[in-house]
Amino acid sequence: MASDTKGESALLKSLDWIFVTRPIVLIPAWAFLLAGYLRAHELAGETSAATRPLLVPFGLLTLVLAGVYIVNQIYDRESDKENGKLFLLAEGHIGPRAAWIEAIVLLAIGLAATAALRPALLPGLAAAAALGLLYSVPPVRFKARPLVDLAANAVGYGAVTFLTGYRLGEGEGLPIARTLPYMLIVGGVFLHTALVDEEGDRKAGMRTTAILLGGRSAGIAALLLLVAAAVAGIVVEEPYAALASIGAAPFFVWAVFLPGRKGSTLAYQWGSLLFVLLLVIREPFFGLWLAVLVAATRLYYRFRFGMVYPRLDF
Question: Distance (Å, rounded) from C-alpha 110 to C-alpha 283?
């Protein structure tokens, strides 16, 4: 029995190297890549789009962003510990040196494989990697620069990743205007994630947009960004952004009148979830993959740390 327990513990610890890449946080990136790909086909008048061509690009994006997310955790150890999240680096289960090695390997393999297998995607993935590293690494560290942190997230997900998917779908031209509603909705959601982390970030000495604006003002700014996303989505005819923004509006309004961790958590969770659900309705296979990922992640966190993650608040 003791040997079985030790074996289970060793297995769980070996999984640390997978879950330190934050696979749940990869979901928005996959979603924006898929949205860009689908919109390229829809704008070409196609009612369906083959998803098989997405498998390799999804894998390449995952490798690159997994490396970026590890670097983010290396530099956020103090604030993550204050915020009580992302235990693997913050609590020393994986050391910074080992984390750096994994991050460099993932980034190198991801970019090299992109250059070899999908060279047309290299500019987009290289831009995502560069933006992600600049977001975390001093002295630039966009994350600790008010408004720049918001802009970096909006551009990284709403523009770079969406346009990479659009290019993958062989869409015509480079529809910069179509990225506007996606950037706006990302900005609104980001403000609420930053509000949830505000206390820990403040103790760690960071100055983010959420800290600059303060709780209620940041909530109002997030709501304005969401409304702008809905309007822009309607104007440029981007249904995924428009519908997700409209659907998330009640939660963003609630967060304005009842500011705090609970309201912001509801706003960012439902703002993200509704966008993802629209894509799942369009491509059910994406939903199947996400269900498997969420189930695996919940099992890992339950047995590794005795906690429920991810969880959806109501």
Answer: 25
47 burial type by CB count under 10 A (0-12 exposed, 13-18 middle, 19+ buried): exposed
pLDDT of the residue at 91: 85
**What CA–CA distances, in Å, run from 261 to 128, 194, 245, 268?**
29, 10, 20, 11
CA separation, residue 45 to residues 48, 108, 171, 285 (Å): 9, 37, 11, 22
Closest CA to 191 of 263, 84, 294: 263
Quick one: pLDDT at residue 28?
96
CB of 73 within 8 A of CB of 89? yes
CATH fold group of domain 12-305: Farnesyl Diphosphate Synthase (1.10.600)
Instruction: Give me the phi and psi of 172, to 5 degrees please.
Output: -80, 135
Give the contacts of 274 (CB within 8 A, at least 6 positions apart).
Answer: 243, 244, 247, 248
pLDDT of residue 90: 84
The sign one gets for the Cα dihedral 160, 270, 38, 112 is positive
Where along the chain do its domains lie? Answer: 12-305
Measuring CA to CA, which residue among 177, 174, 128 is closest to residue 153?
128
CA 9 to chain centre: 29
For the chain (314 residues), the mean pLDDT of every run of 10, in chain order, is: 52 90 95 96 85 91 98 89 77 93 98 96 96 96 96 97 93 90 98 93 90 93 98 98 98 93 94 97 95 96 91 77
Sign of the alpha-carbon dihedral angle for 115, 143, 137, 294: negative
The total number of residues written for the chain in this structure: 314
DSSP for 10-69, please give it.
HHHHHHHHHHTT-GGGHHHHHHHHHHHHHHHHHHTT-S---SGGGHHHHHHHHHHHHHHH
DSSP state of 95: -
pTM of the model: 0.92
Assess contact for 79 and 210: CB atoms under 8 A: no
What type of residue sits at position 97? R
